[in-house]
Structure formats: structure tokens, C-alpha cells
Amino acid sequence: xxxxxxxxxxxxxxxxxxxxxxxxxxxxxxxxxxxxxxxxxxxxxxxxxxxxxxxxxxxxxxxxxxxxxxxxxxxxxxxxxxxxxxxxxxxxxxxxxxxxxxxxxxxxxxxxxxxxxxxxxxxxxxxxxxxxxxxxxxxxxxxxxxxxxxxxxxxxxxxxxxxxxxxxxxxxxxxxxxxxxxxxxxxxxxxxxxxxxxxxxxxxxxxxxxxxxxxxxxxxxxxxxxxxxxxxxxxxxxxxxxxxxxxxxxxxxxxxxxxxxxxxxxxxxxxxxxxxxxxxxxxxxxxxxxxxxxxxxxxxxxxxxxxxxxxxxxxxxxxxxxxxxxxxxxxxxxxxxxxxxxxxxxxxxxxxxxxxxxxxxxxxxxxxxxxxxxxxxxxxxxxxxxxx
Length: 388
Ligand SMILES: C[S@@+](CC[C@H](N)C(=O)[O-])C[C@H]1O[C@@H](n2cnc3c(N)ncnc32)[C@H](O)[C@@H]1O
Prior knowledge:
The protein has helices spanning 11-22, 32-38, 46-62, 77-89, 134-142, 158-161, 180-190, 209-222, 273-280, 284-387; strands at 67-71, 96-100, 151-155, 170-175, 194-202, 229-230, 236-239. It is α/β, with parallel strands linked by helices. Strand 4 (170-175), helix 7 and strand 5 (194-202) form a beta-alpha-beta unit. The chain has a seven-stranded mixed sheet, with helices on both faces. S-adenosylmethionine is lined by residues 42-44, 72-74, 77-78, 99-101, 104-106, 130, 157-159, 176-179, 182.
């Protein structure tokens, strides 16, 4: 017997499903308290927060110099992860730079800022989108116990605040500004300050096409080769090498699949199908809505079922009552019938008795009449004898 899985099992789909089932159960237990403490303040996925936490540990243990910088902080959740991890590592001498408008997203570009599904950001945008005040973010950061004199909030569009308000050296640069323009501008001014072996984290690389283009264009122009690793569908991380690319980073690669390799391959579409199905499966939000809808439906049905059950119980009680009444009526009828038979017997006997009494009475009458009429007759006879 072969110890290999059968040929018709799609291991790629199985891996996707294992990934979904694992959720965060593979994370080291000592990461979880950090995650739980800040998760309500960040829009980043668990994988992104885990990546950031590990990145901070790497930077501190490797002694990479520089500040921790984030462009696009919203409520401050990701920088709270930075601060709380640094507190736990006893490395609170680092400067933390938090760049944001603190007034929400500026208007996205109509053409460039399009998501991976082709949806234009401008169609959802409104002026206060993701607005969180500077004070609120400062309060959130203070909750981590990080010394606030080392926390620098830079308010305004990064296009206006950089490079004037920037640290000289950066150990970790995290870009989460969503749109093309601030991403490109931040890279222009902050990437050159990133220490060799420092980390570049690109939150929106897979999600917003404009953001990706800005990164690709910048790294190409800077001739900085980066191994951008995929953290989840949107986020990428790379370690700055400090090297210069010997050739263009964007040289397109072409792949000719040798016929022997494509026997079950892409040309049939067969291998692609399960993963494409997974990709077009309803989004979580839709599923949650569907669950809510089903819950409502279930509650309505339960209510209806309970009303029907009460009605059925009432009918059952009514039936039992009627059955009892019917049984009592039947018993009364039987008793009445029995009484009636007895009454008929009695009537017969009485009738016999009455006949007998009638006869007796007649006899009595008769004898009485004889007796009463005898003197009369005798008198009559005497009278007639006298008259003769
Ligand atoms: C997706 S949110 C950041 C999420 C946050 N890092 C987290 O993990 O929860 C994007 C932020 O970028 C900010 N932003 C967008 N464009 C900006 C710009 N040009 N300059 C400064 N901040 C900008 C927005 O105000 C918003 O707070």
C-alpha cells in the first residue's frame, strides 16, 4: 500500500483549509497577551501583528540602530504593539515616530488608488474616513507604559511633514497609508534612513494597486533589491540589504512549462479550480451577514414553532377533556340502559300485579255487588210476592 495521498487529493486546497482552521493556534503563547491587548486598536490581521512583534524582537536582539516609524497609524494599534513589545524587552530608549493626518484619509487618486479587485477607493471615500484625533492616539500609546517623551506624533500629510520631521536613522519602517502618493513620498525620504538589516513593512502592498506601484517604482529607482515576503494577502516584509541591484529589479521573467511538467497542469484549469473557488467564496462580511440573517430566521421559526407547540398542547388538553366527558357519558348511558332494563322488568311485574289486583278488585266488586244486591233482591222478591 502506498503511503502517499491519493492523486485526486488537492494538497494546495488542503493547505489553504489548514491555514484557515489554524487561525492563530500556531502562534507562540507568549505573543498572545500582546495580541489581545492591542487587537481592538488595529485594523491589521493577526499575521501582520505577529510579523511586527517578531520584527521588533529581531531588531532589538540584533542591535539594529534607529527609531521605529509608522506612516498611517489610525488608532495607534500597531505602534502600541511596538511600544508594549519594547517595554517587555526593556528597550524603551528607542524613539517612536507616528505619522498621520489625525483627520482621516486625504482623497485618494481616482486612477491609481484602486484595490486588487479593481474597485476605486474614491468611490467609498469621505472626508473623515478613519479620523482619530492626536489626543486619542496619545492616550492609547500612554496605556502601554512606554515613556511618552520618546513618542513623537507628527500631524499632517506625510507629503507635507517629511522630510522636515524625520529621525536620522530608522530601524523599522512600517507604511500603512493605503494610497500611492504618501507611500511614494514616505519611501523617498525614509527608506534611505533605514539601517542596513532594518525592516521595511508594507501593509497595503497586496491590497491597493497604487501602493504596490509606488513601492515597485521606488525600489526600482533606488536599485534596492528586497526579498519582500508575503505575510498575508496584503502585507509584505523585507530586510534592507544595503546592496545595490546589479540589474533592473523589474526585468520580466518568462516561464516555459516543460510539457512533462504540465501533464495535469494549468492548461486544463483542473488544478486552479479549487483555489479559484476559494478565492471567489463569499467574503467574511457576507458570511457574517448571512449568519445574522439565518439567526433571525431561526428565531422567527422558533417563535412560530413554540406558538404551534402551545396550540398543539391546548388541542391535546381539549381532546383529553372531551374524551373524559365522552367516557363519562358512555358510562351514564350504560347505567341508564341497565336501569331501563330493570325498570321494564319492574313495569312488567307491576303490570302483572295490577292485573291481578284488577281481577281481585273485580272479584271483590262482584262479590260485593252480590252481597249488596241480595237484600235488595230479597226485598224485591218479597215485594213481588206480596203483590201477587
Ligand atoms: C489603514 S489606516 C492605518 C491603520 C493602522 N496602522 C493599524 O494597524 O490599525 C491608514 C491611516 O493612514 C492615514 N493617512 C492616509 N493618508 C495619509 C497621508 N497622506 N499622510 C498621513 N497620514 C495618512 C489615515 O489618516 C489613516 O489613519
